[in-house]
Amino acid sequence: MPAQQKKIIFCIAGVLSFACALGTAAAIGTQRWVKGMILCKTGALLVNATGQELEKFIGEIQYGLFHGERVRQCGLGGRPFQFSFFPDLLKVIPASIHVSVILFCTVLIIFALVGAGFFMFNAFGSPYETLHGPVGLYLWSFIACSCGCLIMILFSSEVKIHHLSEKIANFKEGSFTFKTHSEQFANSFWIILVCSLVHFLNALLIRFAGFQFPFSKSKDSGTITGAVDLMY
Fold first, then answer.
1. Under a CB-based contact definition with an 8 Å cutoff, are residues 132 and 36 in contact?
2. Topology annotation, domain 3-209
3. How many helices (H) and strands (E) does the chain have?
4. Which residues cross the membrane (predicted)?
5. Looking at beta carbons, which pairs linking 113-118 to residues 24 or more positions away fall under 8 Å?
6. Exposure string over 78-94, b if 16+ CB within 10 A, otherwise e
């Protein structure tokens, strides 16, 4: 492939990596990771609510990695309540998983920026045959893509397996019990998925630029090298 086309491909990959870093940083600070509806089970059972009456006992909840909001509704109107994970919910949530998600988000941002820098360096500079060359580009893209996948797996397990929404909904509730009526992942969670796919796409762009995967060597090159060694 001509050098000009390689520069264009590397520039595109660098811009995509930088955009992923910005997107991940923006996603961390929002509370749009999960949104759902919570049912005031105690209140609904007290009045035996059914049909349209049940809507008066359904509140809302949305949260991110650091803070969120829930609307507590038990037939007396919605009462909003702001909360933060640190330090309010630290004893209620699976703290090790939650902190791991934040750490992997930070690693994803770092390696997305590193990958963007090396993509631009390979586009406009003179690439070395070490970590500046194809090996490094594959490495940064692989690490960033892996971190994105780990973030989604860990956060999904925290929400679904450990029932994170119910633990938040029942935080500091003595007489009422809340149950998750419905929940779904929101925009910030899907941004992480898009970032993981973008880093995987960057690896394909490197291959499209003409660089083979660094850990695979051609058999022909090994045969030719052996023949040259025999000559000397």
1. no
2. Butyryl-CoA Dehydrogenase, subunit A; domain 3 (1.20.140)
3. 7, 5
4. 97-123, 135-155, 189-209
5. 113/17, 113/18, 113/21, 114/140, 115/13, 115/14, 115/17, 115/140, 115/141, 115/144, 115/199, 115/202, 116/14, 116/15, 116/17, 116/18, 116/21, 117/14
6. eeeeebebeeebeeebe
165-179 per-position pLDDT tens digit: 999 998 888 788 889
Closest CA to 151 of 180, 186, 93, 190: 190
pLDDT attached to residue 44: 82
Which of 92, 112, 136 is closest to 28 using CA atoms?
Answer: 112
- What residues does each domain of the chain span? 3-209
Model confidence, pTM: 0.83
Angle between helices 3-28 and 95-124 (to 10 degrees): 160
Distances in Å between the Cα of 19 and the Cα atoms of 120, 175, 209, 226 are: 14, 47, 21, 45
State residue 185 phi and psi, 5-degree precision.
-75, 140
CA distance 198 to 191: 10
136: confidence class by pLDDT, cuts 50, 70, 90: confident
pLDDT in tens, 23-80: 999 999 999 999 999 988 888 887 777 777 788 888 899 999 999 999 988 766 778 8
The structure tokens listed for 41 are 């089970």
**What does pLDDT average to over the chain?**
83
